[in-house]
Design a protein that fits this description.
about 15% strand; four-stranded mixed β-sheet; about 50% helix; alpha/beta; 14 helices; Nuclear Transport Factor 2, Chain: A
């Protein structure tokens, strides 16, 4: 398998496995629809994290192969066997001048290479796009002015204390270039306020600072980075974007719940959210690289959640986080080990098998020299298929024996087999090469290019599919 084919299949297999994990996360979130937003956010965070863990684990864990039968020349594509082949349906060995050489084939299109190249291009474009957005926010946070308003600083101190976040971790800044309140950074996060925040009333300032410091408490910048990276790598998979959006929605609702849990009146908080989303709002890129307080596309659902008195609003404690991580690992470990390709032969298997096949070919050739078509047919599987030039396909040992007997009757007494290559195809072995059939008296009866699929039946390697095409000069 070429490098492009390997990575292309790896991408397909990883996408299938991670899609299954995301669907499982969606099922868990649906079952927990009456729980708090913080719990559902934990479920989606675990689901998104498996997108990054699965390909890494699949590279280090042993493969668990499903019992998949190799799809090589399936029977449905070989429906040309006649119900009753005519007696003359055997190779006609030519005695005349050679056929003109066939034109050289066009090089095949490497679809795997194109698929991997398109994936890499999309990943690079999206990575540059999000990196530019992150760099813009970093510059904005660095150039913003420190908040020197004692009223705002006091509200921040109270909010941090109420949420159990050390005030020294948080830097308050504002800028006239900020489109909405947002948080940026991990170890010393910046709570960035728009310049007009100085004109907000006390309740709105308290609510905004509680919401943004809630992002700091929950480490939402880190989980957002994981979500963005997953979308960059799986940009072609709509399930990845769907899961990332669900995670973002539940993240904002979880922070809203923390604000309400610290004494905010739902009606006042909902009014403030609506005003911020209407007058400011966050663009799509900003919300994907950093937690931003309000986006117009999400505001209606958030307002309904804020005003719903029956909604659960509890947070997530460490034991629940540990349990969630354990469940995620219990799901991702076997899934990452899963392999949809048939188990290939190892290098040692191939070497041993090649010796067995060469021995079988020598015995097959000896049977041809003895003119024993029945003995030759015993080296084929019970459902073998033999296709020779100018002949009807022969199925099963009986049909193969009839064709070989007619070949012997036409004077063929020996064959030279020159194998060009031999490689595994799933649980079978493919042999390609050239064969020269000799007539009695030393004349060449037929030159063919052949391809043989060897398959193990009853513990012995036998010919499962044998195809021959004319080649070279016939005399």
């Amino acid at each position: 398998m070429s490098g492009a084919a390997y990575w292309g299949w790896f991408l397909v297999e990883t996408t299938a496995k991670t899609s299954l994990l995301l669907l499982i996360a969606g099922a868990f979130a649906l079952l927990l629809r009456r729980s708090s937003a913080a719990v559902r956010h934990l479920v989606w965070t675990a689901g998104i994290a498996t997108l990054l863990l699965a390909p890494l684990l699949s590279r280090v864990l042993p493969d668990w192969h499903l019992p998949v039968t190799p799809a090589v020349w399936p029977r449905s594509e070989l429906s040309f066997t006649p119900a009753a082949p005519p007696p003359a349906a055997v190779p006609n060995l030519p005695d005349t001048a050679p056929r003109p050489p066939a034109p050289p084939p066009h090089p095949p299109v490497d679809y795997w290479l194109w698929a991997v190249a398109i994936w890499a291009l999309g990943t690079c474009v999206l990575a540059v796009f999000f990196a530019a957005g992150a760099a813009h926010l970093a510059r904005l946070a660095h150039s913003a002015s420190a908040v020197d308003d004692e009223r705002i600083a006091g509200f921040a101190e109270t909010a941090a204390h109420g949420l159990g976040v050390p005030r020294r971790r948080i830097r308050l800044r504002w800028s006239d270039r900020a489109s909405t309140p947002m948080t940026w950074g991990l170890w010393r996060p910046v709570v960035l306020l728009p310049a007009e925040a100085v004109r907000w009333d006390d309740d709105r300032l308290r609510h905004v600072l509680l919401h943004e410091i809630a992002h700091v408490k929950r480490w939402d910048v880190a989980t957002q980075a994981v979500s963005t990276l997953a979308c960059v790598l799986y940009w072609f998979n709509p399930l990845a974007w769907w899961a990332a959006r669900q995670m973002l929605v539940e993240r904002e609702r979880a922070c809203d719940d923390l604000v309400l849990g610290n004494g905010a009146r739902p009606s006042d908080y909902a009014h403030g959210l609506l005003d911020i989303a209407r007058s400011l709002g966050a663009d799509w890129t900003t919300s994907r690289v950093s937690p931003a307080m309000a986006r117009r596309s999400q505001i209606s659902g958030r307002l309904l959640a804020v005003l719903d008195p029956k909604r659960q609003r509890h947070g997530v404690r460490k034991p629940v986080v540990v349990a969630g991580a354990a469940v995620a690992l219990a799901l991702v470990l076997p899934t990452a080990s899963l392999s949809f390709a048939p188990k290939p032969l190892s290098a040692i298997d191939i070497a041993d098998t090649r010796t067995s096949i060469l021995t079988a070919e020598a015995s097959w050739r000896a049977a041809l020299r003895n003119g024993d078509a029945a003995a030759m047919a015993r080296f084929y599987t019970s459902d073998a298929l033999l296709v020779l030039p100018n002949a009807h396909p022969a199925r099963g040992r009986r049909g193969v024996s009839d064709v070989l007997q007619t070949l012997i009757g036409q004077g063929v007494v020996d064959v030279d087999l020159q194998a060009v290559e031999m490689y595994p195809v799933g649980e079978m072995l493919c042999e390609a090469g050239r064969a020269t059939f000799w007539r009695s008296g030393g004349g060449v009866g037929l030159n063919v290019q052949y391809m043989t699929l060897w398959k193990k039946e009853n513990g012995e390697w036998r010919i499962h599919r044998n195809f021959g095409a004319p080649q070279g000069e016939q005399r």
